[in-house]
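Dissemination and training. As part of the outreach component of the grant, students in the summer workshop were shown how a complex can be specified as a set of sequence lines and then modelled as a single object. The example used during the hands-on session is reproduced here so that future cohorts can follow it. Participants entered these lines:
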Amino acid sequence: MDGVRIDLISQDRFVMLSAHEKAALVLSIVRSGTIVILENGLTPEEQAELIEMTMSEIMPGEFSGIEIETYPAPSKVRGKGVFSRLLGQDNPPRLTVIGPANQIKTIRKDPDMISAWVSSQIE
Amino acid sequence: MGFGESITRVLNRLFYKKHVRIGIYGPPNAGKTTLATRIARDWGATSEGKISPIPHETRSAGKVENLEIIAGNGHSVTLDIVDTPGVATKVDYAEFMEYGIGKEEAIARAREATEGVAEAMHWLREDIDGVIYMMDAAEDPFMQVNIMMIGIIESRNLPVLIAANKIDLPDANPQHIKRAFPQHPVIPISCRDGTRIDELYDAIVQTFR
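and obtained this result:
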């Protein structure tokens, strides 16, 4: 049966991993053609690590990178100031979908809804 | 503290022009190199960046140093501008071939582009005091790279100024960018024809001084 494998990774699975370990785990899964859904997403620092690591993994003709989908931070959080930052409440990570760039495409993204197309065929 | 030292500190506060290193960040084709070139030209320097419709034309960071930018109110700031490669999560050599580039060169460009993105992320981590984030006002501001990069910049507590570029295009909607990122100053500009560029210079001095 043709199809797409999806791995849903819980926050519990991620909680003890460093930013580097999280990025490496996500990339190793995505490189095998699997879509990853992270229950609690990635922090900005972890996202930066993932971008850098993805760039080092790109091989022309084999792996062209990743597509990531997550919601923008809600406006009530975006408007918060210094105190919420000190309390670590700004930009909390949110559910995130990551897949191979040649298998997942964004159709439409709004602050509260994301539509994406996932293909089982590698383009 | 002696009287002479106090006088020196007061004079420094009054007349010292802060020197900061600013990175121009954004997705490919947002107009980063066009802005760097315009800033350099307007403030008496030269930039060697190449402007092109092909994504990832800038594949290594370019620097313009010691630019003194003066706002309309007379305040000034001295900047080193770093024109960074466009940040992306994917680089497909086939995209370059759509612009008539041969496969071999397209693959070489893709390799350089991936190194350029990694370099841009490195600069952000190590060497940047503030960011001008470029967005194409005719594109969707909620594109993932914008959401991620603004979050990364905020997490590093760097001052950021958003330039909503390409307002000369008929589909441009800088208000959409303002609504998407209300926590940051957004200046609508056209780097190509210079529309409202003076407002950007005022905002640069105000944000990074």
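The beta strands of chain B are 19-25, 62-70, 76-83, 130-136, 160-165, 186-188. Students were then asked to discuss how this feature might be tested experimentally.
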